[in-house]
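@channel anyone free to eyeball this complex?
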Amino acid sequence: MIEIKNVTKRYPNITAVDNINFEVKDGEIVGFLGPNGAGKSTTMNMITGFIEPTEGQIIVNGYDISKKPKKAKKQIGYMPEGTPLYMELTVKEFIKYMAELKSVKHKQMKEMINKIIEQTGLKEVENKLIRNLSRGYKQRVSLAGALVGNPDVIVLDEPTVGLDPKQITEIRSLIKELGKNHTVILSSHILPEVSQICERVVIINHGKIVAIDTPEKLESKTKEKNAILVTVEDQKENMKNIKELIKEIEEIKFIKDNQDGTKQYEIISNENVDLRKKLFEILPKQEITIFELKKSESTLEDAFIKLIDNATEEVISEEPVKDKEKIKKEKEEKKQEKAKQKKMKKEEKENRKKGGEK
Amino acid sequence: MWAVLKKELKSYFLSPIGYVAIGLFLLIFSLFFYLTTIEQRAIDLGNLYFNTARYGLLIIVPIITMRMFAEERKNGTEQLLLTSPKSITGIVFGKLLAAVGLIAITLVISLMYYIILCFFQAPNITSVLVMMLGFLLLSMAAISFGMFASSITENQIIAAIITIVFLVIPWFLPNLNESFSIIDLMSSYQKFPAGIISIKEVVNLLSFSAVFILITIIIMQRRKSVK
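replying in thread with the prediction:
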């Protein structure tokens, strides 16, 4: 268990971490999320005792990291940002050195090293110099260093940065596996990662905690009120009148002009009604042609950006790296949606024709 | 301490630094062996150790101390070291003793000059061992300064230059004022080459080392809150 109480870290010109409070329970996997420079690494460095907080207290498994550093540090395995390693050592030598630093008993050492090498999939490179390893392997060696000595708490600073998708999924499943009998804190600015692995998310920005919750709750919390995205061709500017025609609409927000004669709007309604049907009926009557119509769905990404935008006006957030699979899925979904819309349009036209005939 | 000591000593020989240092050291030893013994037709190793200490340490100490903390800081491996349960004191002593160990290895090799002289007339082995002991203490003092220099920067070159400057300046200071000569570490290596253990010299060298070891420990501990 880790307790972080009123922790502040001040530098001469900047407050890197500003009075944060949270707890990580035993056996929990907690994600530490925030844009670059939010104070994630600073917090992790404080948890692991690498730097001292200016104010506040950090207690790891009952030991205060400032007052009883030796005992507290024994509880922690740390994988620092950027995977610093001793390049002149071989993988096995490095892991052995880390074991010695953590005062692993001589009798258990050999067994433990072999177990960790197996666990992190380093068997085939165990006698290679770390200098000659690829980035992915270096990352694993660093992770192995954190696992040495079987610490209760594992702190991972951006564990999947710079890995290819396959390696990312491997490391993720390894972390999930670790979460079964360790307390894990990991930082990341990659959202899908956090929502997949973590049971709880701490979102931090400009040194302050913006939100702490489960990924699911964060999503629902920040969900837009029933919003629909619609792309239309509207030569007579009739969109303004729609709000009066459909009473359930709360607001019509102009989003962008696509420069091809179509414009995108967001239509928000406060009630729990699906406006899509009504829109299909009414828009054509106003001589508005619908090109695209879809329900906007809130993801953790939206939650993240929203929370951070709320906290500060100016945030440079990075485009999260998506898995290839996810992008593919999204594309397919879009295709299907378009196909549906086409079908619906056709039907509508036919209906109109029939109406005209009558 | 032992874990760090072992790894540091190993690292010296996994990178070229250990070999370069020992090689250079022996080169300087051999040069002075020729100049002070063979050319002079003397059977005395005192001048050999004195001159090697004066000129050799100037080159060797910066080479072996510059990387001690500067490299770890630059590569970030400092994080691994300082987040381990090992105390800073233990880490500092581990690194210091590894460097002293490297010098000790050279000194053991330097016994060959004694063996060479044995073919002519054996010098007194005890006085040779006293010279070596003094040499080791002197090296430790210089290394602890080099270690301090390495702990205040992440640039190895700067660390090396600080150390060299510190070791060279005492040569010139007595020209300004005679009293400056006490700053010179070599002033505490006067009786050792004659095979005499002087308490004053031993205390001087040990206390000098202690001061810089302490400063290094304080710097490393302070970094936690300054960083």
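from a first look: Residues 313-322 of chain A have pLDDT under 50 and may be disordered.
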